[in-house]
């Protein structure tokens, strides 16, 4: 029998947070002990319209939540500013974070890795929890060894705060690991409108689209004389991320170290 995992969820009223509540509710060995939210202090999740009928208190003070609740894991699905502080506090309380918030700075990631090491507390930060997106990143890394000319186009809903997305940045970093560095395009290329060619990364480009109707989509296009290769992943529903969240939670309780990217937990 699988041992019960006690969970604090940060960001329960967001679209991803709502899906996470449903995941916790339907997963027998998951137990929601409380939530962190910017409002609704003292209420229960079941008291909030549109949320599942779960008895779990809401805290607006994250430190108080970690002090008072007996939790094994924090699931944070907020934003970079709030998510960083929640994650930092979780590590200090030896609660293992599973973080789906993208947009952390390199300095913040370094600090979280140090805190994980100092407190012997596992942490998983995943730019994307969709298993298909993780495979898309892996396949892109494989292809880049043979197709070094590449561009990334990522498309998200128009309420997303960071650009490029964490998934696009992680994909670019993985491509960099196997791609022979080179600057693409014409050496005298000139943008007649600033930003027309997208963001530069290691000699190639990342393009961000923000429009209503999208949830998350990414296309990695490789070009070679006489052929192109496209690796594409689309999430049509936020439910697509939940299998990865569950996988990360079940893995992190057995970990004492820092992991960035779900692919590092997959065989």
Automatic annotation (TrEMBL):
Q: Which residues bind NADP(+)?
A: 39
Taxonomic lineage is: Bacteria, Bacillati, Bacillota, Bacilli, Bacillales
Q: Where in the cell is it found?
A: Cytoplasm
Q: Which keywords fit this entry according to its UniProt record?
A: Amino-acid biosynthesis, Cytoplasm, Diaminopimelate biosynthesis, Lysine biosynthesis, NAD, NADP, Oxidoreductase
Principal localisation: cytoplasm
The residues covered by the Dihydrodipicolinate reductase N-terminal domain are 5-129
Q: Which stretches make up the Dihydrodipicolinate reductase C-terminal domain?
A: 132-266
Identify its protein family. Belongs to the DapB family.
Job of this protein = Catalyzes the conversion of 4-hydroxy-tetrahydrodipicolinate (HTPA) to tetrahydrodipicolinate.
The annotated subunit structure for this chain is:
Homotetramer.
Q: Where does the chain bind NAD(+)?
A: 11-16, 100-102, 126-129
Q: What is this protein called?
A: 4-hydroxy-tetrahydrodipicolinate reductase
Q: Where are the compositionally biased (Basic and acidic residues) regions?
A: 185-194
Q: Where is this region: Disordered?
A: 178-197
Amino acids binding (S)-2,3,4,5-tetrahydrodipicolinate: 157, 166-167
State which Enzyme Commission number(s) the record gives.
1.17.1.8
Q: Which reaction does it catalyse?
A: (S)-2,3,4,5-tetrahydrodipicolinate + NAD(+) + H2O = (2S,4S)-4-hydroxy-2,3,4,5-tetrahydrodipicolinate + NADH + H(+); (S)-2,3,4,5-tetrahydrodipicolinate + NADP(+) + H2O = (2S,4S)-4-hydroxy-2,3,4,5-tetrahydrodipicolinate + NADPH + H(+)
Catalytic residues (UniProt): 156 (proton donor/acceptor), 160 (proton donor)
Domain of life assignment: Bacteria
**Annotated coiled-coil segments of the chain:** none
The UniProt entry, under InterPro entries, shows:
DapB_C, DapB_N, DapB_N_CS, DHDPR_bac, NAD(P)-bd_dom_sf
This protein's pathway: Amino-acid biosynthesis; L-lysine biosynthesis via DAP pathway; (S)-tetrahydrodipicolinate from L-aspartate: step 4/4
């Amino acid at each position: 029998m699988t041992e019960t995992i006690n969970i604090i969820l940060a960001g329960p009223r967001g679209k991803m947070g709502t899906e996470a509540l449903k995941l916790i509710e339907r997963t027998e060995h998951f137990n929601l002990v409380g939530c962190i939210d910017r409002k609704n202090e003292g209420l229960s999740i079941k008291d909030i319209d549109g949320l599942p009928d779960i008895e779990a208190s809401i805290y607006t003070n994250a430190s108080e939540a970690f002090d008072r609740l007996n939790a094994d894991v924090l699931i944070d699905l907020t934003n970079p500013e709030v998510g960083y502080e929640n994650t930092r506090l979780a590590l200090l309380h030896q609660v293992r974070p599973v973080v789906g918030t993208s947009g952390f700075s390199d300095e913040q990631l370094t600090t979280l890795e140090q805190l994980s090491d100092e407190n012997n507390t596992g942490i998983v930060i995943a730019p994307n929890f969709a298993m298909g997106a993780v495979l898309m990143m892996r396949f892109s890394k494989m292809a880049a060894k043979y197709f070094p000319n590449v561009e990334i186009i990522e498309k998200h809903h128009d309420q997303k705060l960071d650009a490029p997305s964490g998934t696009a940045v992680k994909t670019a970093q993985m491509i960099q690991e196997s791609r022979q560095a080179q600057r693409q395009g014409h050496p005298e290329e000139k943008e007649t409108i600033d930003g027309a060619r997208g963001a530069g990364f290691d000699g190639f480009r990342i393009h961000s689209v923000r429009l209503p109707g999208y949830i998350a989509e990414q296309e990695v296009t490789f070009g070679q004389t006489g052929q192109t290769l496209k690796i594409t992943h689309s999430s049509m529903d936020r439910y697509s991320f939940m299998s990865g969240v569950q996988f990360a939670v079940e893995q992190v309780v057995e970990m004492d170290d820092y992991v960035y990217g779900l692919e590092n937990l997959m065989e």
